[in-house]
Amino acid sequence: MEIERKFLIHSLPDLSGVSYHRIEQAYLCTNPVVRIRKQDDEYYLTYKGSGFLAREEYNLPLTKESYLHLLKKADGNIITKKRYSISYLSYTIELDIFEGAFSGLIIAEVEFPSSDEAMMFSPPEWFGSDVTYDEKYHNSYLSCCKINESK
Questions:
Q1: How far apart are CA 57 and CA 33, in angstroms?
Q2: CA 141 → CA 51, 63, 92, 124, 131, distances in Å?
Q3: Which position among 33, 48, 114, 137 has the lowest Cβ density within 10 Å, counted as fewest Cβ atoms?
Q4: How far is CA 143 from the centre of its chain?
Q5: Residues 20, 27, 47, 137: which is the catalytic one?
Q6: Is residue 27 flagged as an active site residue?
Q7: What's the pLDDT tens digit per position in 91-131?
Q8: Positive or negative, the Cα torsion across 16, 21, 27, 32?
C-alpha cells in the first residue's frame, strides 16, 4: 500500500550535493494504472490501484529489452524528470523536476506509514499547495493530457 501526499513547490531548496535519479516513464493503461519506468539503469513495470492518498502499488523488475518493447506500446506522453531525494524530519521528500514537455512543473511527494500520519504532516516552508486529491497532478493524467492542459 502506498500512502503519499503531493505538493506543488513555490521555491526550490538548495539542491547542490543532493543526489537524483533520471526517470523516464510511460503508461500502458491509466485505469487501472499500468506504468513502465526507467530509473537510471533499472527498469520496472508498476501496477497502481485507484485512489489518491492511499492505493495499492506493485513493482516488478523488467529487463532493458522488455522495457524498450513495452515502450513502443505505451499511450500518450512519455514523462521525463529528475527525482531528488531530500531528508526531512523522519521522511524522504521525493522532489520531481519535470523535463521535456512538462518542463517547469515541480512536484514533491512524501510517503507515510499510515493515513493518520500523512494527514498530520506539516510540510517545509518551501512547499506550495497540497495537490494530493487533484488528479491533474498524477503522472498518469499527465501521460494522456495535451501538453498545454497541464500548466
A1: 9
A2: 13, 26, 24, 26, 13
A3: 114
A4: 12
A5: 27
A6: yes
A7: 999 999 999 989 999 999 999 999 999 999 999 999 999 99
A8: negative
Amino acid at 34: V
**Eight-state DSSP code of residue 69:** H
Cβ pair 138, 5 in contact under 8 A: no
Number of domains observed in the structure of the chain: 1
Long-range contacts from 30-34, C-beta under 8 angstroms, 24+ separation: 30/75, 30/140, 30/141, 30/143, 30/144, 33/140
Q: For residue 97, what are the domain limits?
A: 2-149
State the pLDDT at residue 51. Answer: 85
The residue ranges of the chain whose pLDDT is under 70 are 147-151
Residue 131, CA distances (Å) to 3, 47, 53, 54, 105 in order: 14, 21, 10, 14, 13
Handedness of CA 22, 149, 8, 10 (dihedral sign): positive
Query: Where are the alpha helices (H) located in the chain, listed in sequence order?
Result: 64-71, 115-120, 139-144
Peptide bond into 32 cis (omega under 30): yes
Rounded alpha-carbon distances, angstroms, from residue 89 to 20, 63, 120: 19, 35, 13
Write down the pLDDT at residue 144: 87
